[in-house]
Amino acid sequence: MKSENEGILFLTRGAGDRPAWNISGKGFCQVKLANFCTVKKFKIKAGGHKIPVLVLRPLEPVKDVPGVMWIHGGGYMTGMKEMVLVSRAADLVRRFGAVVVSPGYTRSVHKPYPAAVNDCYEVLRWMKSQSGELGFRDDQIMVGGESAGGGLCAAVCMMARDREEVRVAFQMPLYPMLDSNDTESSRDNHGKVWDTKRNHFGWRLYLRDNPDGEVGPYASPSRQTDYHGLPPCYTFVGNGEPFYSETVLYVEKLKAAGVEASVDVFPSDVHAFDVWMPGSEIAKQTVESFCGKFAYAKEHYFAPQENVRERGHLNDPERTGNGSSILD
Fold it and tell me: Do residues 191 and 269 lie in contact, with contact meaning Cβ atoms separated by under 8 Å?
C-alpha cells in the first residue's frame, strides 16, 4: 500500500532554523515529483566505491535537450542529492525538458578533498557514456550547482578541460564557494544563512589534508591561473553575501581569457536567497534571468564529444540500465 506522502519531498525547518530534509511530515516547501518529472536512482562504481545519483526527466520526454549535472550545496560538508528538487535545476526540467543528473558526492564530513570533486567528475564521464540511454544530446553536456556545488561545478569544468575526456558546453556555478582564502566580501561577513565563521569551518574541513601552500584550483577554483578554454558561464549572487567578491572575480577572469561569461548581482545578504525566499520579488526576477540565460545557452552553446580521450569502460551493469524509482 502506498503511503499518504509517497512521491512528495518535504523541506522543513530543523534545529537552529537550518533546513532539514524529510519524506514525511509538514513542511514549508513541498515538491510533488509527479507534477513535473520522473526521478530514478542509479549507482556508479568508481574508485572502489559507489556514487549514488538521481536522474530527473520530464514526464513527457523531449528530443534534443541538454543534459545537466547539477551539484548540491552545503559547504562541501552537508547537503544531499535530493536538494536538486528545490534548486534552479528543477526549472530546467519544467521549462526546457532538460535531463538533470544530481550526484550524491562524498561530503567532507566523511572524506576531505579530493573525494567530492573526483566523484562529480566520474558522474560527468558516466553522463557522457549514457547520453543516449538517458535521453539528452551529448554535445550539450552542462554543469551547474549552488554554493559549494557551484565551487565543484567550476572545479569539474577545469578538470574536464585539462583531462580532455568530456567536453562541457556551459557552466552555471551559482553564488559559488570558490576561494579558500578570505575575500573582501567573505571577511567579517555576517550575512544570513552563510557567514565568515561557517565559511572558515567549511574550508578547514574540506581541505584538512591539504596544507595551504598545496591547495590547487581543483580544490579552490580561485587558485586557477589559466581560464582559457573553459565553458561559457552564467551565474548570479547577492551583493551582501560572503561569495559576492569571488563570484564577480571568477566571471571577470573568464572574460579576460576570452570566455563568454556574465553575472547578475542582486541586492541581498541572504546566501541562496532564491531557495530560501522563493516567493520574493527578487527570487522571481532571479528565476526569469536564470531561465533566460539557459534558453540562450540551449540555442547557442555546443561541445561535440569528438576526438576526446577515452579512459576505462563505462558499461558496467551498475552504471547502466533503467535505474530504480526514487520511491523503491
Answer: yes
Grid cell digits, residue 232? 561559457
Say if residue 5's pLDDT is above 70.
Answer: no
Q: Which DSSP category does 105 fall into?
A: P
> Is 285's pLDDT higher than 50?
yes
For helices 281-300 and 89-96, give the axis angle rounded to 10 degrees: 60
The whole-number pLDDT of residue 134 equals 96
- On the 0-12 / 13-18 / 19+ scale of CB atoms within 10 A, 229 is middle
The candidate with the shortest Cα–Cα distance to 158, out of 223, 98, 213, is: 223
The alpha-carbon radius of gyration of the chain (Å, integer) is 18
Note whether 26 and 11 are within 8 A (CB): no
Alpha-carbon distance of 62 to 47, in angstroms, equals 34
pLDDT in tens, 193-210: 999 999 999 999 999 998
Nearest CA among 170, 173, 174 for reference residue 295: 170
**Arithmetic mean of pLDDT over the chain:** 87
User: Closest by alpha carbon to 177, among 69, 76, 287, 71?
Assistant: 76
Q: List the one residue out of 65, 133, 144, 58 whose CA is nearest residue 102.
A: 144
Give Cβ neighbours of residue 261 (< 8 Å, ≥ 6 apart).
232, 233, 234, 251, 254, 255
- How confident is the model over 17-76, as pLDDT tens digits? 333 334 333 333 344 444 789 999 999 999 889 999 999 999 998 999 999 999 999 999
pLDDT of 221 strictly over 60: yes
CA separation, residue 209 to residues 49, 200, 203 (Å)? 20, 15, 11
* C-alpha 75 chain-centroid distance: 12
Q: What is the mean pLDDT of residues 113-129?
A: 98
Helix (H) or strand (E) holding 227: none
Rounded to 10 degrees, the C-alpha dihedral 292/101/48/202 comes to 50
The domains found in the chain, sorted by start residue, are: 1-34 (no CATH), 36-305 (3.40.50.1820)
